[in-house]
Amino acid sequence: MKLCSVPASNRARADRRAGLRRPGNRFPGGRKALPGLAALLLAAVPAAGAQRPGDSRADYRIEAKLDEATKQLEGKLTLRWTNGSGEPVQDLWFHLYHNAFSNNRSTHLTEAGGELRGVKMEEGWGWQQVESVRVSLAGEAGWEDLFPSFRYRRPDDGREDDRTVFSVDLPQPAAPGQTVVVQITWRGQLPRVRRRTGYKDDFILAAHWFPKLGVYEAGRGWNAHQFHANTEFFADYGTYDVTLDLPKEYVGKVWASGVKSNETIEGDRLKVRFDAPSDADRRRTDAFGGQPLVHGFAWTADTRFVPFHKTFRYAEWADDFPGEVEKAHAAFGPTEDIGLRDVDITVLIHPERIDQVERHFKATEAALFFYGLWFGEYPYQHITVVDPAWGARAAGGMEYPTLFTSGTRLFTTEDMHTPEGVTVHEAGHQFWYGLVGNNEFEAAFLDEGFNSYTDSEVMFRVYGEQRSTTSYANIPVDGVPVGGAPGGSPVANALVGKEIPIPIPFLPDPVLQPLPDSGFLDLWRDQPRLTFVPERTDPRWNDRTRYLQSPDTDPLETFGYLHADRQSYSTNSYPRTAVALRSMAAVVGYDNFLRGMRRYSKDWRYAHPYPGDFYASFQEGAGVDVEWYFHELFQGTGTVDWSVAVEQERRPDPMGFFQSEGGEFFERVEDEEEEDADEDSRPWMIEVDVRRKGTLRLPVPIRLTFEDGSTQEIVWTREEQEETTWKRIELESDQKLTSVEIDPERGYFLDKNMANNSWHDVHDRVAPWRWGERVLSQYQRYLHWIGGFGG
Ligand SMILES: [Zn+2]
C-alpha cells in the first residue's frame, strides 16, 4: 500500500494504521481491517506524549507459591487496568501461555512440528488452570464474579486444543479512562524447560507464568494472539509488585524483573518480593521525559547460581570510544544530552563457567552503551544476566524486562563471539522490545530486526571480526565444515576419502567408503586452508549472508506466524531487516539515519508502535522522505543485482574516406610506422556498462579508477533507473581505466550477487573461488547462529 494521502501533520497516525493493513496481513479469525474513514479519524489523535491508542496501563500485584516437589505454582493476582483506548470496553482478554505446553496439539507445538529446539516434546508438560476471576469497577470494593463468562479464545487459528487465550465479560463496559480491578487465582504446572520457560532440576526460568492481559486497541478490539512458535510478546506497560513463596534453599538465589525490595524467611519458606520497575525508578523521569514502566515480569531461581555484580558507567565507555560519542554529538546536536545513567549489572553464572563472568559484563555494558548512545538511555537501575543451567540451554537467549538469558559454552574465546553475540543481542532487546513495545506477533521485524541490525554494529565496533570455528568433542577448532553446507558435503567427503560415489550402470548409487568415520579426517577436512573459508568475518557481513537465504519471499511487514515458511520468518525478522536498515543509512546519510532512529525510539518509548509509526517518526527525525524505500523494501520484496562490464581501447588510427574542409573526400590508409610511433599518445575510448536486475532502485555511486590513481565518481540516480535498467558511461581519457566499483564504500548490503559489482583491468582467477567458499562458510555459521537463539 502507498503510505498515505492525508496532510503531513496527520501523517503519523494514518501511516501507522495504513502501514499495517495491507491485504496480505488480514486479521485472522474474522477481524476486519480498519476502514479508511476510521483511519482518518484516528489520524486526529494528538501527537506523541499525549494519550495514544493502546496507552492503557496495567499494574499487577502478584503472589505465587511454588511446590518444589511437583513444580506447581499457585497464584493470585490483582490487576489494576486503566482503559486508555478511548473506547468503552466490554470484556477482558488474557494470555495463558503455559497451556502452549499442555499438549501436542497446541498452536505453539503444532507450528513447531511437535519439537522445541530440536527435542520432541513427549513429557514434562506444563499447564495453567484459572480457578476464579472477579472484578471491581469501583476501587477494590463491590466484587463481581466473572468466572461464569470464562471462555477460551482462538482468534488466530480456531484450533480447539489451544488454550493460550481466554476472555471474561465485564458486568458493564469499562468507560474510557476508567480503572477496573481484576482478581484472578490460578494453579499451574511449570513445564520441563524446552523453550524459554520452565524448570530443570533446581533451575527455574518463569516466563509467561501468570495470566497476562492483552492490549485493547481502538477500532480493533483486543489484541491477544495465541502463543505461536515464533512470537510471544505484546502487553500494556505498567508496574509489577510480585511476592514469591519458595523453599528457603533459594535464599540469595532468586532474581527477577526489577529489583528485590524485601526478603523474609518463615520456617522453611522464603518470601521474596520484587518491584519492577524499582521504587526509585518509578519516581524517576528518564532522559526522554517519561516515567519508566515495564510490560512483563519474569523470574529465575537456581540453588547453583553464583551472582556477580558490577556497575556500568557511561564515562568509562565514552573514554574508550570517543569517535562514536563525537558522531552521536554530530548527529543529535549540541543540546541533546547523550550521557547515560549508571546501571547495576548482576550476572548469574554457574560455577563451571565463572571464568566467563567478565565477558558477560563487557557484552552487557557494550549494549547498554551503544544502544543507549544511539536510542536513548536504559532507564532502569538494574539489569540481570542469566546463564542457564546445563541441560536448560533451551531457556537461553531470551529477553524479559530488565532480565535476560544468555547462553555460552566451554572453551570459547572472545573472538568467537560466544557468548558475546547472544549477550549483546538479548541485552539489546531491552531497547527493541522492552522500551519500544511493538506488537511482536504482527511486526516481529520491529524488535528482532532492529535488534539484529544494532547488535552487529555493536559487535563489529567492540569485538571486531568473528573467528570461524567448528567443534570436535566440544573443543572449538579453527575452520568451518564444508560438509554442512549445501553441495559442500559430497565434494569434501570425496576429497578425504570418506565417501566416493561410483557411477556404475544398473547399480543404485554405489558408494565407496575407504575411510568412513574418522574424527581426524573431519578435522583435517575442515581446516581453513583446505576449505578456503575466511578465518574471520565482519558481523555485518553475516547479516547479509543470512539475508541471502530468503531475500524476497515475504515483505518485512508480515505477521510473524503468517510467513511462507520458517526460513522466511527468520530471514525477514532478523537479517533482512538488519540489511534494510544498514542500507537505509547509505540512502539518507549516517547522521540523518541516527536522528531518524533516535526519534522513533523517543516517540514510541513505553508505547506500542506499528510499522507506519516507524516510517513516520523516522522520516520526521531524519528530515527526509524515503517512503519509496519503505514501500519497496519493508512492504514489498524488492531486490537488486547490479553488474558492470567494461570495453576500452586506444582510439584507432583514422582509416577510410574523410571529407576535407573544401568538401572533397580523400582516403587515409593505415601507416604502421606512424601508428606505432603515436600509439601511446592516442586517448583511451572507454565504455562502462552498468546493469540492474531486480525492482529495487537505489541511488548508487559508481567509482572509476584510472592508471594514474585518479578517480571519478558518478551516481546512478533513482530517477535514471526508473527510465532504464542500464547505464552506459562513455569516456575518452588519456588514462587507461584500471577498475570500476559499484557502491565502492559498501553502503548497501542488499545486492544479491556482489561478485559482478566490480571490474578490474587485471583479473584474479582465485577470487571467484574465494567468493563461493565465503558464501558456503557463512551459511554454515548462520545455521550455528540460528541454533543458539530463542528470540
Ligand atoms: Zn532476539
Radius of gyration: 30 Å
Count of individual beta strands: 40
| Quaternary | single chain
Write down the overall mean pLDDT.
Answer: 85
Bound ligand species:
zinc ion
Instruction: Report, as a whole number of angstroms, the end-to-end distance.
Output: 29 Å
Percent helix, as a range, is 25-40%
Tell me what the structure shows.
It is built from 20 helices and 40 strands. The chain has 791 residues and is α+β, with helices and mostly antiparallel strands. Strands 7-6-10-2-1-16-19-18 form an eight-stranded mixed sheet, with no helix packed on it. A hairpin with a 2-residue loop joins strand 11 and strand 12. Helix 7 (357-375) packs parallel to helix 8 and helix 15 (590-603) crosses helix 16 (611-622). The protein is elongated and about 115 Å long. The two termini are 29 Å apart. Residues 1-51 and 483-488 have low confidence and may be disordered. The protein binds zinc ion. Zinc ion (ZN) binds at residues 425, 429, 448, 451, 791.
